[in-house]
Amino acid sequence: MTQTPGRHGTAGSTSAEPYRWRGPLHLYFAKIKETKVHLAALDDERILSLQGVVQEGQPTVAGEMLFAIYPQSLFPQYSIIASVVPGKEVGQLGSLGERFIDDKRIEGTLVQMLDEAVAFVTRNMKRKLIVDDYGKRADRTEYPIRAVREAVLNALVHRDYSFHTENSPIRILMFDDRIEIENPGGLYGRGTIEKLGKVGLDTRNPYIAGALEIIIDSENRYSGIPTMRHEMAANNLKPPIFESSHGVFKVILYNEVLSNRKDCITDEAILAFCAVPRSRRELAQEFGFSTPTYFLKNHVKPLIDQGKLALTLPDAPKSKKQKYVAVK
Question: What is the pTM of this model?
Fold first, then answer.
């Protein structure tokens, strides 16, 4: 699906009737009334048409994937295959000769698949007990849940829903050292790996992205990639890796803990953390520095000079109440 909402990315519709839908339609309309006051004044059918959910009175692919009782009755492969692989490569066998420790086909609407995929990964990831210097105990998952959720959401929103990929589900592979989440359809339009999370890129499925932004408060403003980077850095893990080749986009999350927290620092992680104003001390503590001076000079000031970070008190740069916020 591309800019147009119909079947295979072109004008058209499916054969399903709108009244066969269930899913979160009631929630969708309630949030439309909260967030889009001009649309809220229209009748429901008109809203669905303008939002690309129906076309000529029939559900589009976006509408089916968002709200149908069982979207896979029409699109069997628009699903997720989630597998836990023993070892670090596909083909390695477990101690009992098993190819997969856990293996599941995940179906349903986009929201249902998102929740079930995150639950699958959560169920299969390791956990460890962390005790800090003050004796406080906390259960830490192998991968940050928010990073996993953003990666799965990214795959669902940006996969290619055209006839070219009808036989290609999204795949989640959990290895001993990493998770790989891949979706059919490489980077769309003018996008490049280098631009990910830094600028707004072309959206393959704007109607799906817009609807999910309303239904689950997802961000349709290229914030998912910075969130992944920030969450991995906050957990002292290697930055996520993004690959796009042969019509497939892949996110790789490694569980390797870095020996030095400072190795996790990236501009994207700083900007993501500063989505809300942050003080000097908050920044230093977040990125593993005992005092702010070095961190501000070498990491924060360059971003200010580039216009990516702004001072909340520009007329008093040395104020103790000074905070730093990402420029949107």
Answer: 0.73
